Amino acid sequence: SSGINAEYGGAGIGRITKGLLLNCFERVEMLDTCQEHLDSAEKFIGEELFKRVTAQHCVGLQDFKPEPNKYDMFWLQWVIIYLSDTDFITMLQRFKAGLREGG
């Protein structure tokens, strides 16, 4: 695999988690503002693959505080359009601190 830990912001029910991230990373954490989507993820992803989803965070990107030096990658897509410029910049600064060396 190309890395160990990935965090996916705007994960929803896990389409990208299942179709891409779990093929590239040993462990994935999912972040979404909708608990109902996160609760549906195990059924969508499948029980065996879902064992590698190590955490689910029901919080907005603007409020998520990643653990320092933990992640190899943060995956963000269209969801960033909902952030203000200020929230986006501060989120990037926090996420940078969450990346491991080489991440």
Keyword list:
38% helix, four-stranded parallel β-sheet, 24% strand, alpha/beta, 4 helices, 103 residues, 4 strands
Low-confidence stretches: none
Could you give the order of the helices and strands?
EHEHHEEH
Radius of gyration equals 13 Å
Q: What does the main sheet amount to? A: 4 strands, parallel
Name the shape in a single word: globular
Mean pLDDT: 93
Indicate the structural class.
Answer: alpha/beta
Tell me the number of helical segments per DSSP (H or I, 4 or more residues long). Answer: 4
| Percentage of residues in DSSP E strands | 15-25%
Strand order of the largest sheet: 3-2-1-4
Helix content estimate: 25-40%
The overall strand count is 4
Distance between the termini: 14 Å
Q: If you had to describe this structure to a student in words, what would you say it looks like?
A:
There is one protein chain. It contains 4 helices and 4 strands. The chain has helices at 15-24, 35-45, 47-50, 85-98, and strands at 3-9, 25-32, 53-58, 73-76. It has a 4-stranded parallel sheet. It starts with a strand and ends in a 5-residue tail after the last helix.
Layout of strands and helices, then pairs:
Elements lengths: L2 E7 L5 H10 E8 L2 H11 L1 H4 L2 E6 L14 E4 L8 H14 L5
Parallel strand pairs: 1-2, 1-4, 2-3
